[in-house]
Design brief:
494 residues, mainly beta, Beta-galactosidase, Chain A, domain 5, 2 domains, 35 strands, 13% helix, elongated
């Protein structure tokens, strides 16, 4: 089934005739029938459900018909059958976007817990999505978790079903540039929305005003001055794609490459790519592996490993454009987002965004996020560095007890939704970018992305490090293994 009309929502619960028909077809009474948080509804109605066998039916701010039941009372296959009945029923004016089976376990309200045996029965997308266009171009699309269900399988060449995440967080990743297509997380009311920006067709992705939109970045993230560096006495000339400088691996860097994809287990995706000798001007053949893992604690973990056959430079990162309010038309500003960065120093830049050579204290500047501040509080301050970056576009020197330790880097909280994101990394720095150059270009599912509608935390080594011997080294030699680990952890604050 598909729908061209706006999908119906039920702020007062479903009509009596819908519930009566569902009860008749399933042979079970219904409890609740109103908007509710998934965790709260089983706490408040779970014990009555276990005593009576009645099904817990609830909805949310979006177009969903959710059915919760304890696995000891209603086995998962039986609950799935009830949801198939609901999907058949809900047509015409009641053609909801998704019917969701929500099994849980436990013996009482104190220990009830949702399981990962959920199942979504969705409408088919009314038109082609980015996933369809990517597949039509001969590339793979891998749906992680409930993404396959949300798109009713349309445009997905392979599904990676996540388990162990009872909170319902889901991630979708494509092997074109390692783009993160979706990160679905709840707000303080239990409403799930996509909190990362992207495109929904390959043509828009290739021709995007922001070519690094939520992609992997390499070989070298950030800028290299004039696209030149010297290694072993030889000067290398890189592709120049940001004024006079090299940026993010060049115009056909890792963000524009097709990676080999492998499903390791039910919640781990591995991407592999071999970068040829002199690709975008870099020496050596670089074999790179990037592993994405979704944890039980709402963590998206990204692990990088690389080897080379000739001395080269490497600085990988993921360039996620995070919009914790959820994407929309237009996507709301991020200037109200409260930000904390674990850095006492940052790297000043010149008018071309190249490091001046100084490592400067954040104290007394608009760059002091050692205590939480709203991003927009000082983003237009009368400050040379703010002017050079058109806002925030600077590398922060993270506080580390020892080099390479996995430690806290940053945290943001969106005050309206309550969504939060923490960043942990082994890298010495994080590039904080406040999306200063977006102009309202279109993104996925009708969303648009105005200026400062996203925040980026690119865990990395410092910009222009190949030309700065006093910066932490970025040279990789044959026999060595490049490693990096970054974690994006999502949560909710009331």
């Amino acid at each position: 089934m598909e729908s061209e009309k706006a999908l119906p929502v039920y702020p007062n619960g479903f009509p009596d005739e819908v519930i009566a028909e569902f009860e008749r077809r399933t042979g079970r009474r219904v409890l609740c029938n109103k908007p509710y948080s998934g965790t709260d509804v089983i706490r408040d109605y779970g014990e009555e459900h276990m005593k009576t066998g009645a099904l817990i039916v609830y909805t949310s701010a979006d177009s969903v018909f959710q059915v919760a039941a304890n696995e000891a009372v209603v086995p998962v296959p039986e609950l799935s059958r009830y949801c198939e009945i609901a999907r058949e029923m809900l047509t015409g004016d009641h053609n909801v976007g998704r019917v969701i089976a929500r099994p849980f376990v436990g013996t009482n309200a104190k220990n009830f817990k949702r399981t990962t045996n959920r199942h979504d029965l969705s409408l088919k997308p009314p038109r082609k999505t980015m996933l369809d266009y990517i597949r039509a171009a001969g590339l793979d699309t891998i749906g992680v978790g409930k993404i396959y269900d949300i798109f009713d399988g349309e445009g997905v060449s392979e599904k990676l079903k996540t388990t162990g995440n009872a909170n319902g967080m889901e991630v979708a990743i494509t092997n074109y540039g390692g783009s993160i297509v979706a990160i679905m997380v709840p707000d303080k009311n239990g409403k799930f929305e996509n909190v990362i920006q992207g495109h929904d067709n390959l043509e828009d992705c290739v021709n995007s005003p922001e070519p690094f939109l939520s992609t992997l970045v390499g070989r070298y993230g950030n800028r290299i001055c004039k696209g030149k560096f010297t290694l072993n006495g030889k000067e290398y000339n890189l592709a120049v794609n940001n004024g006079p400088n090299h940026l993010h691996g060049g115009p056909t860097g890792f963000h524009a490459r097709v990676w080999d994809a492998e499903q390791i287990n039910d919640r781990t995706l591995v991407l592999r790519y071999i970068s040829a000798y002199y690709e975008e001007g870099f020496p050596g053949e670089l074999s790179m592996t990037v592993m994405f893992t979704l944890s039980d604690d709402n963590e998206l973990k990204i692990d990088y490993k690389g080897t080379t056959n000739k001395k080269t430079v490497v600085n990988m990162t993921s360039h996620g454009f995070f919009s914790l309010s959820g994407i929309g038309n237009p996507t709301p500003t991020c200037e109200n987002v409260v930000c904390q960065i674990n850095a006492d120093f940052y790297i000043p830049i010149d008018e071309n965004s190249i490091p001046t050579g100084e490592i400067r204290s954040v104290k007394g500047t608009p760059f002091d996020f050692t205590e939480p501040h709203a991003v927009g509080e000082r983003i237009d301050a009368d400050d040379e560095q703010i002017r050079n970056g058109a806002g925030y576009d600077h590398c922060f020197v993270l506080n580390k007890r020892e080099p390479g330790e996995l430690s806290f880097a940053a945290k943001i909280v969106e005050p309206v939704s309550g969504r939060s994101m923490e960043v942990y990394t082994t890298e010495p720095g994080v590039q904080f970018y406040s999306d200063n150059w977006a102009d309202g270009y279109k993104g996925q599912h009708g969303a648009t992305f105005p200026r400062r509608s996203a925040l980026c935390f690119e865990a990395q080594h410092f910009p222009d490090s190949p030309n700065r011997p006093y910066f932490p080294p970025v040279v990789l030699k044959p026999g060595q293994v490049y490693t990096q680990k970054t974690i994006y952890k999502f949560g909710v604050e009331q």
